[in-house]
Amino acid sequence: MLSMLTAAAHAQGGMAQQMLAETNLARTAPQRYVGYLRDLRRTFVGKGYLLPGSTEMVLTTEGVAALDEAIGFLQRQKPLAPLAASQGLSESAADLVRDEGPSGEVGHTGRKSGDMRQRIERHGTWQGSIAENVGYGPNTARLMVLQLIIDDGVPGRGHRKNIFTPGFRVAGAACGPHAVFRNMCAMEFAVGYKDGRRNP
Length: 200
Description:
- This protein is α+β, with helices and mostly antiparallel strands.
- It contains 7 helices and 7 strands; from the N terminus they run ααβββαβααβααββ.
- The strands form 2 sheets. The protein has a 4-stranded mixed β-sheet. Strands 1-2-3 form a 3-stranded antiparallel β-sheet, with no helix packed on it.
């Protein structure tokens, strides 16, 4: 049992690293992500789409409308600088994953870990501005980033805006199992960040 838990932890840690890599790919080569979105569009049936290599259907709120809007956005998006990895921001994201994963709760404020700012300030000092993305469901980093870029059902497309905010320079991510949606990933962004635990 211990080896299975260790393997699962390694897999989730790998997905967190891939989240940063995929987010940087979207920022530095947005046209590549246009292709991924078009591939996803081909799997849509009504307002749902089939997961790759599966017969499982994922239902959306807006159907292809949000996806087509995301394609249009990326077609106009200029390449941005990649985000540098931050251990402190990754630990901040992990606090939320540990909080929400077992309980099945969702959102940007954990019952034990606090809100985004509290978690980020627990592990370091930020400069400029900060933001957070949280996604639920997909079992690969690419699908998770695609979901956040499409931002189905989110009127302001805040997750997409965070990914493509030019001023953000550092980020950290964490992923883990979720009691309701199977998987979740949290990602913290900052203009600047100095790692260093401040509060217990």
